[in-house]
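User: Structure with zinc ion, tokens only please.
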Amino acid sequence: MSTADRTGEPASRASRASAISAEVAERLAYPPRVINHMMRRDLAHVVLPGCVLLAAQHSVDGASDSCSAVRANLQAAFERLPARPDNLFQGTTGTIGAVLAMRRFDFSDSLVQPIIESGCNWLRHQARKAVNSYPFPKLQRSQAAPPESYEAISGFSGIGRLLLLAAEQGQSSADAELRSILELLTELFTPASGESGISSSLWGESQLPVGTAPRVLATGVAHGLAGPLAFLSLSLIAGRYVDDQPEAVRSLGTYLAALRSVTAHSWPTAAAVRDAVDLPGYIPNHGWCSGSAGIANAIHLAGLALGDSSLIREGIEGLSLLDDIPVEEWGVMGSALCCGYSGVLQAATNAVCRADDPRLNSLVEKAAQAVLNSWDEDSPFGFPRYVDGKRMDTADLLYGASGIALALHDYAHGASSWSSLLLLR
Ligand SMILES: [Zn+2]
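Assistant:
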């Protein structure tokens, strides 16, 4: 849905969101200004990928000076590479991801072209290093798969999503590495014959001494099972798949769908072996990263990838149920993409593009209003972050103003390619 399709209160909300997003883009257009606000300027590579994306998003809407803002931020980001920490949103991988996820920017541009080429080589190298260091196949592994190996933020699902983005941009140089990652994840998430749900080797049951508490796996899209589910589903939808991949998607999707607690309207943030009940100390969380918004989206994608109507229904139902819950009870903190309101907004905005459900539309409006309520015009970037009562002005994609402004932009104008970085599309 775009600003033009709305009427009444949603229309004025959308135009306010659009204006605020443009205002933040203007405040983040000049890298030295952003970096001067950082307590640690050596971590500029953490904020620049988000600034690149926000500038690129506004450049296609004809905002003045935005092409020069894209170039200034790209240049500043590129000058700082290689950089650590490195993951889907920061450092070398984060910068390459931002370039690959830019919408309709000129990829033959003299600045962008070499970044794409060397970026794809970097990703191929990262993928090969990760795959080669991984015990394979699972029957020969001596230990359970560590979640950080397959997760989205810094594991196979995230690198795989970037390689898939590269393939979608017409870069075929990384096809072999994309295939290796698909084979590895498929193998990891296909239960052995006689098993259902999740392979016992993933739980590491056989390595646990008798009487040990069972292993717990995160469920969310950032660090848990919904990450590989989203990536394997997206690649299936894109026509990139290996043998048994549909079976892995079905098995993992069905397992995650069954975990939703109907009374709490949400998924547990972690699952214990063969146990669908909430863990002690569990707090309902509906955020993108570790809660319902990201998990429901992954299940919806799985349903679409397989043409499975019950998974499709579960994905929409799991997300639209949030519309029945007051925003204060979503278990999120602040307005950021990670753990905050704009993460729920971005998940709902993407879901609405795929399913025109009235409750999803209502959820989008609710989440957008919650984000807009945290606009603070007098702060440097408009959306300060509060940690233990202490204010921080940060511009990064996951926790800062660039990500929030991107979510507001997409709310007003429709979901677009940068959501790939969140594995929402
Ligand atoms: Zn988070």
